[in-house]
Amino acid sequence: MEIEKRSFEIIAEELAARKIVLPPDQDPITRRVIHTSADFEYAETMRYSEGAIARAKELICSGADIVTDTNMALSGINKKQLAKFGGQVHCFMADETVAKLAAERKTTRAAVSMEMAAKIDKPVIFAVGNAPTALIQLYEMIQQGSYTPAFIIGVPVGFVNVEAAKELIMETDVPYIVNQGRKGGSNIAAAICNALIYTMVDRG
Predict the structure, then answer these.
(1) Residues 8, 35, 45, 172: which is the catalytic one?
(2) Which of 72, 153, 160, 188 is most buried as measured by Cβ atoms within 10 A of its Cβ?
(3) pLDDT averaged over 10-residue windows placed end to end, the chain, 204 residues
(4) What are the CA-CA distances from residue 126 to residues 110, 175, 198 (Å)?
(5) Is 90 marked active-site?
(6) How far apart are CA 84 and CA 109, in angstroms?
(7) Are 22 and 15 in contact (CB under 8 A)?
(8) pLDDT at 201
């Protein structure tokens, strides 16, 4: 705890030195992303839809579930704290049905796992940190009118389709937190989820 406290103090000092002032509602989320990555570029590239933080907090408070596209993100999200509000975290990537359907359709497990998540009978926050195809699948479901996610955290990392997939999500009416550019990752997706959960726990 002491190390974390000092880390956040250093982040505050460096943000001030860079003359970066984060919007108050976004500040805890962006700072935790910087804490996770030691990368201050996130202070410039994180994008939040209007009212995104308030909406995410409402969803968590009302017991929304979180679906991730990797078991790493699943492991990193504080499930015990989320459970206090009635939410659970899911990852369908290792599901046998997902693997079978992906092979049959010649698509990715990430894309099929988004379809699986759409069957959850409650609001879902999607936290995508690895697979741009997951974001593309969500976008297509939104465009087709077959499913509308409650919230999307879009931070996949990489070089192929990553930036384009993030841009697609920012074109929708679904509230989002996205990091523009190539950077991201499962650890970043988990950090954003935890930052939102911790602000609710602290408030409680």
Answers:
(1) 35
(2) 153
(3) 93 97 96 97 98 97 98 98 97 96 96 97 98 97 98 97 98 98 98 96 62
(4) 12, 11, 18
(5) no
(6) 30
(7) yes
(8) 76
